[in-house]
Amino acid sequence: MPATDVDFEREFEELVSDLRALPTAAPTGVRERVRALGEPPRPRTLYDLLLTLSSRRSLLVLAPVCALALVSAAVIHGVVNSGGDTGRTAATGQKGAAELQRDALDSHATATTPFGAVTGAPLAPSFPTPAAGRYQDYEASLTVRVKNIDALHDRTAEATRLARTYGGYVASVDESTTSGNGRSDLVLRIPVNRVEDAYFRLARLGTVTEQHLSIRDLDQVVQTQRRRIVQLKVQIARIGETVKSSSLPADVRLRLELQRDAAKQELARVTGSNKATLREASLSRITLTLTSQKAAVATRSGMSRIERAARDAGSFLAGAGAVVLFLLIVLSPLIVLTLAWIFGSRAYRRREERRLLSAA
Amino acid sequence: MKAVNAVTTSWPGLRVDRPTFSAVAESELEAVHRYLLFLTGNRTVAEDLTGETFEKAFRTWRRFDPRRGTPRAWLCGIARTTALDHFRSEERRRRREERYARDLPDAEETALGSGELEAALGRLSAAEREVVALRVLLELDGPTVARVLGISTTACSTRLSRALKRLEEMMRDARD
Questions:
Q1: Which residues of B113-125 are buried (b: 16+ CB within 10 A; e: fewer)?
Q2: Could you give the CA distance from residue B72 to residue B23 in angstroms, rounded to a whole number?
Q3: How confident is the model at residue A153 (pLDDT cuts 50, 70, 90)?
Q4: Is the dihedral of CA A299, A302, A303, A305 positive or negative?
Q5: What is the C-alpha to C-alpha distance for residues B5 and B71, in angstroms, rounded to an integer?
Q6: Distance, CA of A72 to CA of A2 (rounded, Å)
Q7: Phi, then psi, of B131 in degrees rounded to 5
Q8: φ/ψ of residue A192, rounded to 5
Q9: In the predicted model, what is the mean pLDDT of chain A?
Q10: How confident is the model at residue A124 (pLDDT cuts 50, 70, 90)?
Q11: One-character DSSP codes across A285-307
Q12: Is residue B53 less than 8 Å (CB to CB) from chain A?
């Protein structure tokens, strides 16, 4: 029976006292050698202190730190991604009218704005008033949800009628139905001065789920074209006057006539372009999509910010988990080999120690 | 001059009162030497290994954590590794010498001593001698010794019991 802490001293009392009485004092030489070592330098840097941590303790510290960092990253990701979407959409929508138009006019450039960045949510229709006295190309797109296929047919017909009522026309209609759902794509050309009214009437055909407006200022283009037309007309008139003179040599006359023909051709082209631009500026293009398809069940804008943050954080964590799982699967052979090597080398070391001690 | 026997690390979260190396070396030198003397059964080797053990301990002193064990147990662990390295190198040396000088007699080694008990100790295996040294002479408790030796507490107790019984028998035979 193995001896415990107390009973081996009682059982082998005499032997133990003999063993403790053996002369085993360390000689002075060894003592001096150890004393000469002095005091090791104290750890000063964080690196020095990290060296004092064992691998097991480092793991105990690192594992919660990594988990905390991951959760923090997920929370930050969730909060950052959830924040301001609704506000931003609303702000864009409110900016729409006058401000957008002013920006477009000031820059003489194309201005494009989505009035509803997110599909599926009912939107309040808004439309900037066309600027009087300026040539502008209006393009609007509108997605309107209607109740069912019957309503879709009715609303398509109504949209066609509305276009005519406002002095415009239907450029194209494309209506299709599949498995209980239907969709109509219409391209309407409406005079710019009545586009605002038409737009609001079209928006009332159902629930607006998406709207988009593009305004391109054409004033500069029209002015440039007009200046060029005047220049060409003046050039043609001057050449005509010169050609009338009978004192011109034949070759000069021929060259002038060729120049006049070229100028006339260019005048015809620029005039055509000018007419097209004016036509473009007089008629707006409204792309209307009517659909009977139901909106997605849960839309982002329908959720509260906390819900969105939690969902984003959750998907971040799920993504991180997937990455960890992937790494585990990919690295599992390596992990198994490493563990086998650790346990194997430990067993080998133990056996080696036993052998050495029995041989010593 | 007032001797500083303990210092406290200044890093928050890692605050621990540690004794100074010199204080530990002063108080544990005898114990380590005694252990190595029993383990190797050779005074000269034990002296060399004692010095070597404290040099290693000096280099790795920053890794010593008083919360994980006593300085004595930590030093005995280092001493054991040092002794095993010594046995390993001795074995290699012997093998080399056997290959080139088979006929040469073994060099005479300094034993534990000349008495009956020393002779009996010399007949024990190194594994038995070291458990006797750690438990009886250094008075370390069972779990600590088991941890130093890398065996279970039960195995440690069995080994100690067997070693002491063998010693007692050898002493009885010698007296008879």
A1: beeebeebbeebb
A2: 12
A3: confident
A4: positive
A5: 13
A6: 54
A7: -70, -35
A8: -60, -35
A9: 78
A10: low
A11: EEEEEEE-PPPPSS-GGGS-HHH
A12: no
Residue predicted with more confidence, A238 or B106 = A238
Mean pLDDT score of chain B: 82
- Name the closest residue on chain B to residue A41, using Cα atoms: B62
Contact B19, A42 (CB under 8 A): no
- A139 strand-pairing partners: A214, A285
Is there a contact between A128 and A213 (Cβ–Cβ < 8 Å)? yes
Q: What is the ipTM of this complex?
A: 0.73
pLDDT at res. B111:
58
- CA–CA gap between residue B13 and residue B10 (Å, rounded): 9
- As a whole number of Å, the end-to-end CA separation of chain B is 56
**DSSP, residue by residue, B72-103:** HHHHHHHHHHHHHHHHHHHHHHHHHHHHH-TT
Contact assessment for residue A182 and residue A292, using Cβ atoms and an 8 Å cutoff: yes
CB atoms within 10 A of CB A292: 21
What confidence score (pLDDT) does residue A246 get? 72
Considering only CB atoms, which chain A residues are within 8 Å of B10? Answer: none
Which is higher by pLDDT, A233 or A110?
A233
Q: Is pLDDT at B49 greater than 90 in this prediction?
A: yes
Residue A342 Cα, gap to closest chain B Cα (Å): 15
Whether A268 shows a pLDDT value over 70: the answer reads yes
| Six token digits for residue B148 | 């130093």
Q: Which CATH class is domain B16-175?
A: mainly alpha
Residue type, A353: E
Query: Residue A116's pLDDT is what?
Result: 42
Q: B37 vs A24: CB contact, 8 Å cut-off? A: yes
Closest-CA residue to A183 (of A291, A286, A296): A291
Q: How far is B77 from chain A (nearest CA, A)?
A: 13
Strand ranges inside chain A, DSSP E: 110-114, 136-145, 169-178, 181-191, 207-217, 283-291
In this prediction the pTM is: 0.50
| pLDDT at residue B114 in the model | 67
Test mutation, A1, A7, A12, chain B, max B CBs within 10 A: A12
Would you state the pLDDT for residue A142? 87
Task: Enter the tokens of residue A168.
Answer: 């415009």
Cα distances (Å, whole numbers) of residue B32 to A154, A180, B105: 101, 90, 31
Say if residue A152's pLDDT is above 60.
yes
Helix (H, G, I), strand (E, B) or coil at B148: helix
Which positions in chain B touch A348 (Cβ < 8 Å)?
Answer: none
Q: Which residue of B has its CA nearest to A16?
A: B136
